[in-house]
Design goal:
Oligomer: single chain
Order of helices and strands: EHEHHHEEEEEEHEHEEEEEEEEHHH
Radius of gyration: 22 Å
Bound molecules: flavin-adenine dinucleotide
CATH superfamily of the largest domain: FAD/NAD(P)-binding domain
Structural class: alpha/beta
Shape: globular
Number of helices: 9
CATH topology of the largest domain: FAD/NAD(P)-binding domain
Number of strands: 17
Helix content: 10-25%
Length: 387
């Protein structure tokens, strides 16, 4: 595709088209906002963010007690950008005076960023799907059609939970749907899944005085891997160690859950080896997320693990002009599911788009200087830390 910054505007408008832009970014979470900031620095005209709810909506849905796992610290001036910052010149630690912000606090930081960077967000637009239309991409939304030369998919994972295909999952409740652990009915709780969300649920439930059983296929809490996308973060590990002193948490690390069934008021959780656990309250499903690319799965290829395939500049291998940023990104077997990881790819996408529009890419040097430009993916191939 060889496009210029104005080609979109030469095309005839369809009667139900409500908006056209050079670049549409779907989702105003950290990925969408950080990406929009890079495009602003590149002076790309007509960049619009479409958001189904409001800026930082996923973080406003976090359970009340949940906190950021990755710590915030204002090291920006020394080239060590706050791990949770979406730009090299901002810091949630500085804005919020918190090391581990809550969801709503972090959403406040995102709202400030939108205002200070002067980004163009339209809220209340729910993107329902997309399709190519000649050289453009047409987005189907709840309000009508939107036309763009480039679409950057930044709709995240949190609002697209997965029940792990467990039969009877409707008797449980996904961890992302819980607002307060203290509201969980009864005195005992079962959590299915033992990674970050499962351990966060267990710690929150134990703090509310519940006796918790965590059922996991493998003991993720014992995994010793240098990649925090695979092993429990130090923050969660520390919280778990403290919470376990109450003797309210049992960790079972060899339970392959086959299904949930309900009779009268009792829910039974069945494991492949014949064991079962009974409870009167809905088991918590900490079974992960299917991700928002499930909404546009006709336009991405997916690998054996169900992750979207992208080119070296994070463009769909199936639909040119459609880019992916954020927590669903994967390269060389590494998940970019933390902000400090996926933010390093905004500049790569920015360079691809600016290059095709014939725009100057010099402003990206600031990103390289500030460790926010990861184009050598071999850097991610960390082996275990030596200590
Ligand atoms: C339990 C848990 C703890 C986590 N802790 C950390 C942490 O400590 N540090 C860290 O770096 N990461 C953490 N993460 C990962 C974190 O969720 C992601 O880093 C971050 O939210 C991803 O940002 P995003 O912009 O890709 O997605 P989101 O924050 O989900 O933003 C997507 C936005 O898109 C909007 N949207 C969705 N679908 C549509 C649509 N169809 N049309 C229009 N708008 C749409 C949503 O409303 C939302 O505002 C955690 C995740 C979980 C589940």
């Amino acid at each position: 595709m060889n496009r210029t910054a104005s080609s979109t505007h030469n095309r005839a408008t369809r009667h139900d088209e409500i908006l056209r832009a050079n670049v549409i970014i779907v989702g105003a979470g950290p990925a969408g906002i950080g990406m929009a900031r890079v495009l602003r620095d590149l002076a790309i005209p007509e960049v619009r963010l479409l958001e189904r709810e409001r800026v930082g909506a996923s973080f406003r849905r976090w359970p009340e007690d949940m906190r950021f796992i990755s710590p915030s610290f204002t090291g920006n001036a020394f080239g060590l950008t706050d791990l949770n910052a979406i730009s090299y010149d901002s810091s949630p630690a500085f804005a919020l005076k918190r090391e581990h912000p809550s969801g709503p606090e972090y959403a406040d930081y995102l709202e400030q960023a939108v205002e200070i960077f002067g980004l163009n967000v339209t809220s209340g637009i729910d993107v329902l799907g997309l399709e190519p239309d000649d050289d453009d991409i047409l987005l189907h939304t709840n309000e009508g059609l939107v036309r763009a030369q480039f679409v950057i998919w930044a709709a995240g994972q949190f609002q697209y939970p997965s029940d792990g295909d467990i039969p009877g999952a409707e008797h449980g409740q996904h961890s992302s749907r819980v607002r307060r652990w203290a509201d969980h009915a009864g005195e005992d709780a079962i959590v299915i899944g033992g990674y970050e969300s499962g351990i966060d649920a267990a710690v929150g439930l134990a703090a509310a005085g519940k006796r918790v059983t965590v059922l996991s296929r493998s003991p993720a809490w014992d995994r010793n891997d240098a990649d925090p996308s695979l092993a429990l973060s130090p923050y969660s590990r520390e919280r778990l160690d403290t919470a376990r002193r109450s003797n309210l948490i049992s960790l079972i690390g060899d339970a392959d859950i086959l299904g949930l069934d309900r009779s009268n008021n009792e829910i039974r959780v069945l494991a492949a080896d014949g064991r079962s656990w009974k409870t009167h309250s809905r088991p918590i499903l900490a079974t992960g997320f299917s991700g928002s690319t499930s909404l546009v799965d006709d336009w991405f290829d997916f690998d054996d693990e169900g992750c979207p395939s992208v080119t070296a500049h994070d463009e769909s291998t199936r639909l040119p002009g459609l880019f992916l940023v954020g927590s669903e990104l994967k390269h060389r077997g590494h998940l970019f599911c933390y902000i400090y990881k996926f933010r390093q790819r905004f500049a790569v996408v920015g360079r691809a788009i600016a290059g095709r529009l014939g725009m100057d890419t010099d402003p990206l040097e600031a990103y390289r200087l500030n460790n926010m430009y990861l184009d050598d993916l071999a850097c991610c191939d960390i082996e275990n830390c030596r200590c």
